[in-house]
Amino acid sequence: MKILGLTGSIGMGKSAVTAMFRRAGVPVFDADAAVHVLQGPGGVLLPAIEARFPGTTGPAGVDRAKLGAAVFGKPDELKALERIVHPAVGRMRARWLRRHRSQPVVVLDIPLLFEKKGWKAVDAVVVVSAPAWMQRKRVLARSGMTPGKFRRILALQTPDAEKRRRADYVITTGCLKYETEAQVRRLVACLRAKKGR
Fold first, then answer.
1. Domain ranges of the chain
2. How far apart (Å, rounded) are the C-alpha atoms in residues 6 and 104?
């Protein structure tokens, strides 16, 4: 099995590329989706999160705004949350990989692949990238986003140029969607051919 780590900065089009991998028949483990399950209604992490961050959970699961306010800009609090969340996501990922071990290629969608050293657990890194002006336009079009908030998010992420430099493969989204999808399909075909499938 070839394990690809898929990442990209905010607004680069990673979600769209994830969907393209799925359409190409490649199983994708979505770390963000796993966190939503773990922190959603009845999620297994709710008791631990509530104990460490009182008032941040309820019947609907984690109140993301309250939890975000409790950890944003507070490195020690963020680390405490990560100590609760990351091991649980790791266990889900390990179970998922066992279920898909017969596949020639799988994708781990990990937003903070470089920031949290997730690149060590994959065979190759795929970075989704677009021109900076396009990234900015996409992000500022989001509800509730401001230029200041965008700058703060970017400051927490490995710069796009560094991600591209460290990538094994770069998928560009600063083009027409069918062109991006063609890049994904070529990569999948190439990797499957190397695996003899």
1. 2-192
2. 16
What residue has token string 């961050």? 53
Domain 2-192 maps to which CATH number in 1.10.3720.10, 3.40.109.10, 3.30.450.20, 3.40.50.300?
A: 3.40.50.300
Give pLDDT tens digits for 100-146.
999 999 999 988 899 888 888 899 999 999 999 999 999 999 999 99
Closest CA to 183 of 196, 168, 173, 195: 173
User: Cβ distance 21 to 188 under 8 Å?
Assistant: yes
